[in-house]
Amino acid sequence: xxxxxxxxxxxxxxxxxxxxxxxxxxxxxxxxxxxxxxxxxxxxxxxxxxxxxxxxxxxxxxxxxxxxxxxxxxxxxxxxxxxxxxxxxx
Length: 90
Description:
About 20% of the residues lie in helices and about 40% in strands. With about 90 residues, it is of the alpha+beta class. It has one domain (about 5-85). A hairpin with a 5-residue loop joins strand 5 (about 70-75) and strand 6 (about 80-85).
């Protein structure tokens, strides 16, 4: 079984690798939660970052500091592969 540090790194690398596809920065990206599933098959990793929006000139502006986006990553505890990324409602 992989350790929690490896699972968090996998989730972080996964979202960073998608940054050019989603065409948006990930300001203040940080670890929010970590949990091992009840059956020990998956690490559930939540990463959060500040929301951004484009104004009419196309320039990115930060939204209120308190508004964050949370993503939940399901990382296989044996292989270390990210198997899912979902929106994490708070």
